[in-house]
Amino acid sequence: MLEIACNLSRIRASLPESVTLIAVSKTHPAEAIRQAFDAGHRIFGESRPQELCAKYEVLPKQIEWHMIGHLQTNKVKYIAPFVRMIQSVDSARLAETIQREAAKCGRIIDILLEIHVAQEETKSGWELGELKRYVDSAAFASMPNVRVRGIMGIATHTDDRSVIRRDFSELKRCFELLQPYFGARFDTLSMGMSHDYLLAVECGSTMVRVGSSIFGKRDYSRQ
């Protein structure tokens, strides 16, 4: 417990008060999340709906859960009753599915629009032009149970910090271009992970997703 608490304290100390820290707990056991919870942290990110639901059942209900991984439309119904934010909304079909499932639960679910900026084609996300066309169609006006809070993105996986900075700067530009469509509620730019979150903050991130620097290396055998 001491190691996780110390890691959290160190990372919090490195962040401005205006930046939200998401503790990415995917593949880590519920016991590790409990340790972080006992150290005062409340916001956790998961990538797989099944794992998220299992942890939700056994961990304190004061936890604010964020879905940060690619989400299939047929899995939305499992997390809609409790998830606080879905960060990885990468298609109109997914946004509309979240609207339907949120309405069934009588909830409003916060979402982020995931934008593709990385050089890897395997990474998901909207192309900005496609997203602007969708936003221009006023489609979100017919989704009262979805609240668009901002955007998220993942930088290119590289050691070249100039490339990472370029990707983060592009995400910041996209955020500023889209903000007028949504107004004051559009306040979240989620970018930056364990290896690059300080650079992300320099580039304007308001939310960072940090996992291994808090919990250690992921155990993919648990998936």
Highlighted features:
single chain, 9 helices, eight-stranded parallel β-sheet, TIM Barrel, alpha/beta, 223 residues, globular
Give your account of this protein's structure.
The chain is of the alpha/beta class and 223 residues long. It has one domain (2-222): Alanine racemase (TIM Barrel, Alpha-Beta Barrel). It is 40% helix and 17% strand. The chain has helices at 2-13, 30-38, 49-58, 76-79, 92-105, 128-136, 161-182, 197-202, 212-215, and strands at residues 20-24, 43-46, 64-67, 85-89, 109-114, 146-152, 188-190, 207-210. An eight-stranded parallel β-sheet has the order 7-6-5-4-3-2-1-8. β2 (43-46), α3 (49-58) and β3 (64-67) form a beta-alpha-beta unit. α1 crosses α2. The longest helix has 22 residues, at 161-182. It is globular, with a radius of gyration of 17 Å. The mean pLDDT is 94.
Shape: globular
- CATH names the topology as TIM Barrel
CATH hierarchy: architecture? Alpha-Beta Barrel
CATH superfamily: Alanine racemase
Residue runs with pLDDT of under 50 for 5 or more positions: none
Helix- and strand-based class?
A: alpha/beta
Radius of gyration: 17 Å
**How much helix, percentage-wise, in residues?**
40-55%
| N- to C-terminal distance | 23 Å
Q: Work out the helix count.
A: 9
Strand content: 15-25%
Q: What is the residue-mean pLDDT, rounded to a whole number?
A: 94
Largest sheet data: 8 strands, parallel
Tell me the count of domains.
1
Strand segment tally = 8
